[in-house]
Amino acid sequence: SEIDASDRHSRTLRSLSWSSDGQTLAVCSFDATTSLWREEERSIGSGALRFTNVSVLSGHENEVKSASYSPSGALMATCSRDRSVWIYDASDDADEYECVALLQSHTQDVKMVKWHPKQEVVFSCSYDDTVKVWGPDGDDWCCKETLEGHESTVWAMSFDAAGSRFVTCSDDRSLRVWAPTSSSRPGEAEKKTETEPVHRGSLVASAAFLSPLFMSGASLAANSRSSSEKASGSESRVTPIDASCNWSVVSVIKEEHPRPIYSVDWLQKSDFIASGCGDNRIRVFQPKDGKLSSWSCVADVE
Q1: H or E element, residue 15
Q2: Which range among 44-58, 64-78, 138-152, 187-201 shows the weakest confidence by mean pLDDT?
């Protein structure tokens, strides 16, 4: 199936994201809007899939960089060059999503938004070199944490399956693996958070497509099983009590990429991280000796 979005967008498409139930496709554009597309009902024996545009969301002042649905599908987040993150109510059957929060804490444009895989907590990566953690605050939303560590633009991030770790990639040519601080883990001391008020070419640009490739590779999964089990047993892999807690860097993968890293994806079934770099190469990393604090490059694809 092919969707012609030229009637809904006046500029280039930037990125897209499926809803949690796979029924809606959110398409972000440089024209500062996000269009929503749903599959038309098909009769038995019909041909290719057909999609209908059900809504176009406007409000951002500049191009929309990314969209992401929460794990429950009740919320959708978008981010933009205008430095803001918007949270939409996507819980009902209405085609027009309602904006329930406008989050403005980043000082530069926001490159990506990503929901925690288990909780209604959203993370955002920015040109201001930070990752921000956003969560509910009563009837509103606020910035719970600002995570610093990268020395330049944070382009993208990806969680492991449990939501116990995530990895970020940056213009500083490094990958950083993050974990909740010890006080945020189940059974430990009650977490503390600092709350910020809410004010109303040819480069490899995406590595997410690698996940289906790995999942279909039986040999890679078999070879990685023992390493993954060892990693799971040697280090805590428990989802934090509240993902809007403080996170800290537990591993830095550097001196492996000669140029900025624009995309990263954590394989959900095993502990492999794939990166897409500005040198047009894809690299795959695996934990050393089952420890998530140390990684080695096991594949370099040109």
Answers
A1: strand 13-18
A2: 187-201
